[in-house]
Amino acid sequence: SLSRKLLARSASAMSQLDTRPVEGCVAKLWKDTNTARELFFSEDIGNYQLPRVCEAIRNAPALQSISLKLRYVDCLHSRYEITSDKLKNLSEAIRNAPTLQSVSLECKGLGSDCVDVLSEAIRQLPALQSISVKGCYQIWYSGMKSMIKAIRQLPALQSISLESRECTDDDLKILSEIIRDASALQSISLECRALIDNKVKILSEAIRNASALQNISLGTLVLSDDGMQILSEAIRQAPALQSISLDCTDLTDNRVKILSEAIRHAPALQSCIAKHQFDCTDLTDNRVKILSEAIRHAPALQSFSLKGSDGDSQPIKCRGKGQGLKGNDITPLRDAILHAPALQSVKLSGFVGYRSLFEEL
Fold first, then answer.
1. pTM
2. What is the mean pLDDT of residues 113-134?
């Protein structure tokens, strides 16, 4: 997808791009360049493109980061179909990149057998610091299990981001051991179909005892009061936790209050993103008042983001008492923003009627 002018540049000129992503680059551009440190393929990769991708990886001995979008395309011609057998060459190329520090895979439509092959390559990268596997909604138990077991073998890992249809309790127990025992791990992001009470309980014990963990992102949370209490206690007790992003459903006054207590008393917390789904009635004026009180008294909180959605990605309109946020009830949030001791950034999205708040601020 590069322009013809760019294609005409010499290898020495191309080497100047090695510190930033190049969209849609093809292997021949890097054939004579040994200084490339980052390869980013913005287009979906099918079977017929895999040899070029493998060649690009092999011809970049200093490669530190790779981002791939692998897609299974259901069509009549077999050259588009990515199977585990056809991924073995890619896995071998990744496995033989000793300087690789970051791997990002978007696996659209790939099954667990394909992820098993990729996992075998990832587990043999001793310098890997960041792993991201997304778009894996066809991956069920076996595929996620093999990926988590591969991650366990990475001593230098600092960041984990996993997106899957399902995580079993056994998978989460292994992941929790990684969170608890990995001395370098600083960030964990987990997205699966539903994180219910028993699953969050498994993760919370690890979060509470993770000495280096600074960032947590969890979704989609479907918690009772007890589940929210367990998670909030873990947030409050995590010694190094600086940032949380929680995607919640089925909020009640009590659950908002429990979460607010965690925000208020977490000693190192600097950033909080609170998202809710489906209906703005989850965030009534009373619940925003509770959150505002937590923002006002959080000693280290520097950034707060409150996101709402009505299910259609449209702005939420204020709809009267008890049904969403009213323009007349911005006083608690305004006071919290003005008096929060460390607050530097506030973001409200999905709500209509808050222009007057920011004009006044």
1. 0.78
2. 88
